[in-house]
Amino acid sequence: MKDALTQELAAFRDLLAELVEIPGVHCHEEPMMIAFRDRMARLADAVKVDLRGNVYATFEGRPGSERTLMLAAHLDA
C-alpha cells in the first residue's frame, strides 16, 4: 500500500510541475484552464467548469478512507 501511495504522490507532483509551466497570465487564463481541465478529466471521477472558468475536479476516494484533501489554487500567474 505504501508503494502505491508513494507512486501516486510522485505522479501528482509531476502533474503539478507540468501545470505550473503553462502560461496563465491574468485575464488570459483560458490555455491554463483548458490544460488543467483536460488533465483532470483523465484522473478525476468528475470535472466541471463554471461560467467564470473555475475548474472543479472531484475524486471519490477509496471505500473506508477517512482522508479528505482539498487543493485550491489560482490558474493565473
Q: What layout of secondary structure does this protein have?
A:
Elements: H1 2-19, H2 30-43, E1 46-49, E2 55-58
Task: Describe the protein.
The protein has 77 residues and is of the alpha+beta class. The chain is built from two helices and two strands. Strand 1 (46-49) and strand 2 form a beta hairpin. The longest helix has 18 residues, at 2-19.
Which descriptors would you attach to this protein?
42% helix; alpha+beta
In short:
By secondary structure, the chain is of the alpha+beta class.
Uncertain segments are none
Widest β-sheet, arrangement of strands: 1-2
Report the radius of gyration as a whole number of Å.
14 Å
Mean pLDDT: 84
Major beta-sheet overview: 2 strands, antiparallel
Strand content: 5-15%
Structural class: alpha+beta
Element-by-element helix/strand order: HHEE
Q: How many strands?
A: 2
Shape: globular
